[in-house]
Design a protein that fits this description.
Strand content: 5-15%
Largest sheet: 5 strands, parallel
Number of strands: 5
Shape: globular
CATH superfamily of the largest domain: Glucose-6-phosphate isomerase like protein, domain 1
Order of helices and strands: HHEHEHEHEEHHHHHH
Helix content: 40-55%
Structural class: alpha/beta
Strand order of the largest sheet: 2-1-3-4-5
CATH topology of the largest domain: Rossmann fold
Radius of gyration: 22 Å
Distance between the termini: 53 Å
Number of domains: 2
CATH class of the largest domain: Alpha Beta
Length: 299
């Protein structure tokens, strides 16, 4: 069992942070921030396990649901809100709930995080089932709202994952997969929007990005599910096709015109040397994964 690392502990290194120069102050903060990525490293096997579990359930029609309070809840909302523009996912595929509702995104809602039943009701209202994955986010690992949501999700058969910066912690008792980056005491005692928040952000980045990669939302490291809905995105789409196919931007734009501005279709059409209709058919057959579409035989 890993040693405990309590988010409310006092950091002896920064006890004089209010007495030093501003440069020394930010050097102290930076020195502590450097520890965050290393704290995440031991959790990589659990993170990978979570990604595989989430992706498998999404392939069966499931969703990824974040539930948290305060900073943890806001980080979940941030990650969920970035998935549609980055990976062209429907808004209901990756969603987040925060204690206190929408008002809590920008304002503290006193007592909301202590309402265990509110967490249960959130999961109930979402009609969570065994196809879904629920990530409970709580820096301390003790937040009742999150615990209530996780309990209900587990009862409903969902894959439940905990993300906390304490270990052991109550949040782990309701999780099938435990992720606990131990960042140590904060620069300002108890201010978990700092190192704990940064660690949670890193983990959430991995969970959503890794899941989307497993679902074929990228080809190599290119965001091939981009929807060309404005000038900037049309330029990005052409750039992606050019990079994937090793052709000029002008050639990529002409190719996209022939493929109804569908990036994936254009890439498969060019690399497999087949018409757009056949490329589209292949992609449909393999759930949009380009590498599979390049290797399958036409039906």
């Amino acid at each position: 069992m890993k040693p405990g690392s309590y988010t409310e502990a006092r950091n002896s290194y920064t006890e004089k942070i209010d007495q030093v120069s501003t440069l020394e102050m930010v050097q102290m903060i930076n020195r502590e921030d450097i520890k965050v990525a290393e704290a995440v490293r031991p959790e990589l096997p659990a993170i990978a396990l979570a990604i595989d579990g989430i992706a498998a359930r999404m392939q069966s029609g499931g969703r990824l649901i974040y539930i948290g309070a305060g900073t943890s809840g806001r980080l979940g909302i941030l990650d969920a809100s970035e998935c549609p523009p980055t990976f062209s996912t429907p808004p209901e595929l990756v969603i987040a709930r925060i204690a206190g509702g929408k008002r809590a995104i920008t304002n503290a809602v006193e007592g909301a995080e202590d309402d265990l039943e509110a967490g249960r009701r959130e999961i109930e209202a979402l009609e969570v089932n065994e196809k879904d994955s629920v990530v409970g986010i709580a820096a301390s690992g003790h937040t009742p709202y999150v615990l209530g949501g996780m309990q209900e999700a587990r009862h409903r058969g969902a894959l439940v994952i905990s993300l906390a910066c304490n270990h052991p912690a109550p949040i782990e008792e309701h999780a099938e997969i435990v992720i606990a980056p131990l960042v140590g005491p904060e620069v300002v005692t108890g201010s978990t929007r700092l190192k704990a928040g940064t660690a949670q952000k890193l983990v959430l980045n991995m969970l959503s990005t890794g899941t989307m990669i497993r679902l074929g939302k990228t080809y190599s490291n290119l965001m091939v599910d981009v929807q060309m809905t404005n000038l900037k995105l049309r330029a990005r789409g052409a750039r992606i096709v050019a990079q994937a196919c090793g052709i000029s931007d002008a050639e990529a734009r002409r190719l996209l015109e022939k493929c109804d501005n569908e990036v994936k279709t254009a890439i498969v059409s060019y690399l497999a040397d087949i018409p757009a209709a056949r490329a589209r058919s292949r992609l449909t057959a393999v759930h949009g994964v380009i590498r599979k579409a390049l290797s399958v035989k036409d039906l």
